[in-house]
Design brief:
alpha+beta; five-stranded antiparallel beta sheet; four-stranded antiparallel beta sheet; 38% helix
Length: 448
């Protein structure tokens, strides 16, 4: 679902060693390490390469990495991998840092092998040991299209099924500026979390919940990454607003499931009707991410059994499924090709998503509501702040699926806009940099 922050250091180190070179790094670091727990994890990693040339001890790794991480990649193996990595990469320079939260970040490191992309996630409690370290080559940005015709041509080359909507938001409707695949209903990946945020906001407006309502972490509600909430102890209470922020900003799957369970699956499904979703039945029952992984990573026979049931049968199946364990995270790491993206997913057209954006904009304009701030935590792509005074974002992906959805306010006239672009391919992964380039080009055109 957007990404897996897992203990795959062995694989990614090997990939970096043979990665094609990208942009030439600067001769000196041009970014500062954030003064956060994730920043300290990054600083240690950089020191281990530059000062120790990758030479670390098992005792040091036990201090730095969580037990869960070391259960996937033992300290003895990491010692050898780190040494190999240090020899192959040489010194690194910190080129940029994108803070996703105090507990997670993405950095770009310059090296003789080219730019590297390093994701770091740490435990929420001191001493904030590393729970995720993902390293890979940084893929250079693609050229942006500079006209709507180029946008459409570039989008058509990415996948056999695509959709796009750029629209001006009036008080109660979306007015299209540019549209591709008007009625194309596609798998969304984690962009479905917009419906969950809306459901939570509705219950808060109805005073069933508040943004400060404590939600206790439950082991039975935990999911696979992305995210960090799954590392919290069973029973720990966190305010609803914090869980909502994690769901949107770092696409935290466990946070998402805690919100779905708190507001109720039926409440999320009501948001499909409230926003006049044209294909609502395809999203009933509305899956949690835990159920999604249990089905996606299951044997084909289990998937076929679920898909062969009617809605009532599927709901009963999920009740049974919820009593079962999550699949091992290693099975997710092996997930490279599209799996059942036309049948096991969350689905919407760009028009459906625009209705959600309208509702979220309305919810965010209520005094004291953090909805707009939550959506703006992670802009997703490069945003020209000279064009846009506000940019809210939620994206999603899995192999064969990618969606980028934005709620925007234009700086020149304070007008509100919606933009969404999606791509589905049942044969292969989506070219993510290409779709990002399409989105960035379209946003530049829309902002003029």
């Amino acid at each position: 679902m957007v990404s897996f922050v897992v203990a795959t250091l062995a694989v990614t180190m090997a990939a970096c060693a043979h990665a094609p070179q990208s942009a030439t790094p600067s001769s000196a670091a041009s970014a500062a390490v954030p003064a956060t727990p994730a920043g300290e994890g990054l600083a240690w990693f950089v020191r281990s390469i530059n000062d120790a040339h990758g030479v670390v001890t098992e005792d040091e790794l036990v201090e730095r990495f969580s037990g869960d991480f070391l259960s996937k990649v033992p300290a003895s193996q990491l010692v050898q991998l780190s040494k190999q990595f240090g020899q192959q990469i040489g010194n690194v320079t910190l080129e940029s840092v994108e803070e996703q939260s105090p507990l997670a970040l993405v950095a770009k490191l310059g090296s003789a092998q080219g730019l590297l992309r390093v994701s770091v996630a740490v435990e929420p409690e001191p001493p904030h040991r590393i729970v995720g370290l993902l390293i890979g080559p940084d893929i250079p940005a693609r050229a942006r299209p500079t006209s709507w015709e180029e946008v459409e041509t570039a989008l058509g080359a990415i996948a056999p099924r695509t959709n796009l909507l750029a629209a001006r938001l009036e008080p109660d409707r979306c007015v299209p500026v540019r549209e591709v695949g008007k009625d194309e209903v596609l798998a969304l990946g984690s962009a479905f979390k917009l419906y969950v945020l809306l459901a939570a906001s509705e219950q808060i407006s109805g005073q069933t919940l508040s943004w400060q309502t404590p939600i206790a972490v439950r082991d039975s509600w935990k999911s696979l990454p992305s995210g960090t909430l799954q590392h919290e102890k069973d029973g720990k209470e966190l305010p609803l607003v914090q869980i909502a922020r994690q769901m949107i900003s770092i696409s935290d799957n466990t946070a998402t499931d805690h919100l779905i369970r708190t507001v109720g699956r039926d409440a999320v499904e009501r948001m499909l009707d409230r926003t006049r979703h044209a294909s609502a039945t395809r999203n009933r029952p509305f899956l949690t991410t835990r159920e999604f992984f249990q089905l996606k990573l299951a044997a084909n026979a289990d998937q076929e059994r679920y898909l062969g049931l009617d809605e009532a049968g599927r709901r009963a199946f999920l009740e049974e499924l919820d009593r079962k364990e999550l699949p091992p995270i290693e099975t997710a790491a092996e997930w490279k090709a599209p799996r059942a993206i036309d049948t096991l997913e969350w689905f919407a057209s760009t028009g459906d998503l625009c209705q959600v954006a309208l509702a979220l904009r309305e919810a965010g304009q209520v005094e004291g509501s953090p909805v707009l701030d939550i959506l703006a935590q992670n802009p997703g792509v490069r945003i020209d702040r000279d064009q846009w005074s506000y940019a809210g974002f939620k994206g999603g992906s899995e192999p064969g699926v990618m969606n980028l959805t934005f709620l925007l306010r234009r700086k020149s006239d304070d007008a509100w806009f919606f933009f969404s672009v999606g791509a589905n391919d049942t044969r292969k992964e989506i070219d993510a940099p290409a779709l990002v380039a399409v989105a960035e080009g379209a946003l530049e055109l829309l902002g003029k």
